[in-house]
Specification:
By secondary structure, the chain is an alpha+beta fold. The protein has helices at about 20-40, 45-60, 110-115, 165-170, 175-195, 210-225, 245-285, 290-305, and strands at about 15-20, 60-65, 70-75, 75-80, 85-90, 130, 135-140, 140-145, 150-160, 230-240. Strands 7, 8, 9 and 10 form a four-stranded antiparallel beta sheet that branches. It has a three-stranded antiparallel beta sheet with strand order 1-5-2, with helices on one face.
Length: about 325
């Protein structure tokens, strides 16, 4: 057993006090304190203590929008997650979780990918709030090698959302940075496993099996991003092309293969038509042909069907054997 492996956190949904019930209670406490102070029934020192307590308790109010959650952390201990939208009141000493800046050593392309996810995607929002809405990561175009070593350009779009707020908050340092970096790594690994085209033994390829490739990408992303409490709803390729340095060579290869494939299809069709014509003549007993005349007929039909120029028929006014 690996003792160095970190234990995964698990979300616990909890409820807090209704803010609309706590607000009049706190206002009533403040009003009573002011009234007692005015009538000199309590000392000023006690009134100041009550006022400070009122200010502290008043900071416990917070609101949640639909599809938004708040992670409750009390003195470093995880107490649960509030998922109910509305006006709430909780312990004022719950951590507010200031946003953590990106690491100074983070590469520029990672910062760009992070900004493209959403302007709401941050490691820790105010008051440890986390958006549960679906978000889109539109990845940059990457230059990678496919299974055969051909350089290709590839990009993908990923639709994701936070499913476990505890994992997103505590199991990774910054899930907003973690998602684009792992998405890029998964896309590079996927491209290395498949050929761009012309696979062997009917194996799936990046260009011909888009749906299968998308499902494989989604599975790999889910395996990687599941550690951060993220659920991948969809992953699809948005760009796929040969790299510019080999694009012209590959285009010429495709054109050559098309030139070779066209006559093959034409000959296959012509042979099928000749075979059908001979069978129809024999079945309906239109004419009896020996082997030599059948060979001549096959030759003439193939010339007519496979010829590139217009055919000019010659009318035979004699017998069939002249």
């Amino acid at each position: 057993m690996n003792t160095n492996e970190l234990a995964a956190n698990s979300e616990r949904v909890v409820n807090v006090q209704n803010g609309w019930l706590m607000l009049p209670l706190l206002l009533a406490l403040l009003g009573v304190t002011i009234a007692l102070l005015v009538t000199q029934m309590i000392p000023i020192f006690f009134a100041i203590v009550v006022f400070v307590a009122f200010v502290v308790l008043f900071t416990g109010f917070f609101t949640l929008q639909p599809n938004e959650a708040r992670v409750l952390v009390l003195f470093g201990a995880y107490k649960g997650t509030v998922r109910t939208s509305g006006f709430h009141w909780g312990n004022p000493f719950y951590s507010n979780g200031p946003q953590q800046p990106s690491s100074p050593g983070q590469p520029d392309h990672a910062k760009t990918a992070e900004m493209r996810t959403s302007r709401f995607v941050t490691a820790r929002l105010g008051r440890n709030k986390i958006s549960l809405r679906a978000r889109t990561l539109n990845g940059d175009k990457l230059k990678v090698n496919d299974k055969r070593g051909n350089p290709i350009g590839i990009a993908a779009v990923v639709v994701w959302r936070v499913a476990d707020t505890a994992q997103a908050m505590f199991d990774v340092d910054n899930y907003a940075n973690y998602i684009p970096m792992q998405s890029e790594s998964a896309l590079r690994h996927l491209a290395n496993q498949y050929s761009y085209d012309y696979g062997e033994d009917d194996e799936p390829t990046l260009r011909s099996n888009v749906d299968d490739i998308s499902q494989a990408l989604r599975r790999e992303l889910q395996e990687r991003l599941g550690k951060a409490g993220v659920l991948v709803d969809e992953a699809r390729l948005t760009h796929l092309a040969y790299a510019p340095e080999i694009a012209q060579a590959m285009l010429r290869r495709q054109q050559a293969e098309a030139v070779i494939a066209a006559p093959q299809k034409l000959v296959q069709g012509a042979v099928s038509m000749v075979d059908m014509a001979l069978k129809e003549l024999a079945d309906k007993r239109v004419v009896e042909l020996d082997s030599e005349r059948k060979a001549a007929m096959v030759s003439n039909l193939l010339v007519v069907l496979c010829g590139e120029s217009e055919v000019h028929p010659v009318v035979n006014t004699g017998t069939l054997y002249n």
